[in-house]
Amino acid sequence: MDLAEVSLSPASKGVFQIFYDDKLIWCRVKDGGFPEAKELKKRVRDLLDPTRDLGHIDKHQS
């Protein structure tokens, strides 16, 4: 499955949250800031297609 679109919606009072359907995948307060692209790609992949290889992102895990 491929992700066709991502949209950002403004919020107030420093809220930064990323949802897929109704599932929260990133929260600035809970997760401690803004996500690195690498971490965000992993979280989205884990929901959409957990078996998909992200190439160099998956190969350089610590």
Question: Strand share of the residues?
Answer: 5-15%
Largest sheet: 2 strands, antiparallel
Uncertain segments: none
Shape: globular
Mean pLDDT: 85
Query: End-to-end span in angstroms?
Result: 27 Å
Describe this structure in words.
Keywords: Redox-active center. This is Selenoprotein W-related protein. It holds the Pfam family Rdx. This protein is of the alpha+beta class and 62 residues long. The protein has a domain at 23-52. The protein contains 3 helices and 2 strands, in the order ββααα. The chain has helices spanning 28-31, 37-48, 56-59; strands at residues 17-20, 23-27. The protein has a two-stranded antiparallel ribbon with strand order 1-2. The longest helix is centred in the C-terminal third of the chain and has 12 residues, at 37-48. It is globular. The termini are far apart. 0% of the residues are buried. The mean pLDDT is 85.
Give a short synopsis of this structure.
The protein has 62 residues and is an alpha+beta fold. 32% of the residues lie in helices and 15% in strands.
Can you tag this structure with a few keywords?
Selenoprotein_Rdx-typ; Selenoprotein W-related protein; Thioredoxin-like_sf; two-stranded antiparallel sheet; globular; alpha+beta; redox-active center
Spell out the blueprint of helices and strands.
Layout: E1 17-20, E2 23-27, H1 28-31, H2 37-48, H3 56-59
